[in-house]
Design goal:
Blueprint (H helix, E strand, L loop, with lengths): L23 H12 L11 H14 L6 E5 L5 H9 L2 E6 L2 H14 L4 E4 L22 E7 L5 H9 L1 H4 E12 L13 H7 L4 E14 L3 E13 L3
Parallel strand pairs: 1-2, 1-4, 2-3, 4-5
Antiparallel strand pairs: 5-7, 6-7
Helix pairs in contact: 1-4, 3-4
The chain binds S-adenosylmethionine.
């Protein structure tokens, strides 16, 4: 199956007066994608996330009361899954359509999901001066980035803040597409780049591999991916 583009071209244009400070052209791309399909990436959680969270059960015993932050959570398949396991979940994404669907999905599943519209190009884990976000300034037991493929500057800035944002035993779980030669390859990094970006987090497991994706309409078939699970050093 062909792989529709994951990223809109960035065409900055003035925000309408009173609009939220989101990058509206990029958010609009995602809104249109989410409005046009029942589930762009399916309702099941990402299977690398599921596998690594299963492994965390051995360390943590249970997840009740643990705080999870899902970056770019889209339609909420991963956030809702973590909430079903007992995590208190905050999801961030800049697509209002995604938020609407995620909150409906959470309601259907009978779980609470805190979902804040946020342009992650502007998000700073460690600042509490700019955004009246419930989550800001608290520490997270788990931060998740599943197929969130920001620009290099955004990724470097955000991931440099992970160590401070995580609680003492906090973990970070990521899967991204990995492209070595596309013009957009900086958005789809390999393991060495990501390990550098998340310093001083300690790698629990990580690999670059080709694997079969079966996630909704947009993630089907064989893809090169990078998977990474890291933790804060004790
Ligand atoms: C490929 S989808 C993955 C969604 C979800 N993590 C999943 O696995 O189902 C990428 C998501 O990133 C979000 N996104 C992209 N750039 C963003 C930004 N700058 N701020 C907030 N969300 C962003 C999009 O709205 C979209 O929901």
């Amino acid at each position: 199956m062909s792989n529709p583009s994951e990223h809109p071209t960035h065409h900055p244009h003035p925000q309408p007066q009173g609009a939220p400070p989101l990058n509206s052209s990029q958010a609009q791309f995602w809104d249109e994608r989410y409005a046009s399909l029942p589930w762009a990436y399916g309702q099941e959680p990402n299977d690398f996330l599921r596998q690594e969270v299963d492994a965390l059960r051995t360390t943590w015993g249970h997840f009740k009361g643990r705080r999870a932050l899902c970056l770019a959570d889209g339609e909420g398949r991963n956030g809702v899954y973590l909430a079903q396991l007992g995590f208190e979940v905050t999801s961030l994404d800049f697509s209002a359509q995604a938020r609407k669907k995620a909150l409906q999905w959470a309601q259907t599943c009978g779980v609470a999901l805190q979902y804040t519209l946020m342009d992650l190009n502007d998000y700073d884990f460690n600042s509490n001066d700019s955004l009246a976000l419930e989550a800001v300034g608290k520490s997270w037991d788990l931060i998740v980035a599943i197929f969130f493929q920001p620009s290099k500057p955004t990724r470097e800035r955000l991931y440099a803040g992970l160590n401070q944002a995580l609680s003492a035993q906090g973990h970070f779980i990521l899967e991204t597409k990995h492209e070595r030669s596309s013009p957009e390859s900086e958005r789809y990094p390999g393991l060495a780049t990501l390990v550098r970006d998340i310093e001083p987090l300690l790698l629990v497991t990580g690999q670059e591999c080709a694997r079969e994706l079966n996630e909704g309409t947009y993630h089907q078939g064989m893809h090169e991916v990078t998977q990474l699970h890291a933790k804060k050093m004790a």
